[in-house]
Amino acid sequence: MASDPLAALLAAAAPLCGNGTLHRARTEGGFADVAIRCRTEALREGAEAPGLPGRRITLIVLLSGLDPGPTAEDEVTVPEGRWRIVAVERDPAGSHVLVQGRPA
Predict the structure, then answer these.
(1) What is the Rg, in whole angstroms, of the alpha carbon atoms belonging to the chain?
(2) Half-sphere exposure of 6 toward its Cβ, with a 13 Å CA cutoff?
(3) Statement: residue 49 has pLDDT above 60
(4) What is the pLDDT of residue 2?
(5) Which of 67, 97, 71 has its CA nearest to residue 86?
(6) Separation CA 16–CA 5 (nearest Å)
(7) How does pLDDT run across 53-63, given as a tens digit for each residue?
(8) pLDDT reported for residue 101
């Protein structure tokens, strides 16, 4: 058993998460791909209207081994498709972030 409580929690949560790819925006343009562990929390389908996004996704992205975390300049690919990150909310304990995305 791990002596670090955060490491133990992340190890226990790992089977609940799938694989994804974080596409980090580069200052010189383009993206650098980084493997991530994540889970789709919500996938919303709706009509696009002014001020209201149509399709959107909420992901939980584990931060273990991911430094720095995702930003609003990045994109992410999961089985549901590729998404442009529009908001990132960090967990107070630092184990994960909630990522809001729209189709890329």
Answers:
(1) 14
(2) 10
(3) yes
(4) 47
(5) 71
(6) 18
(7) 678 999 999 99
(8) 95
Q: How far apart are CA 54 and CA 40, in angstroms?
A: 17
**CA-based nearest residue to 81, from 50, 30, 31, 40:** 40
Evaluate if pTM is beyond 0.85: no
| Strand-pair partners of 80 | none
Q: How many CB atoms lie within 10 A of CB 41?
A: 12
Q: Is residue 38 classed as helix, strand or coil in its secondary structure?
A: strand
Is domain 5-103 classified as CATH 1.10.3470? no
Domain locations along the chain? 5-103
d(CA 56, CA 101): 6
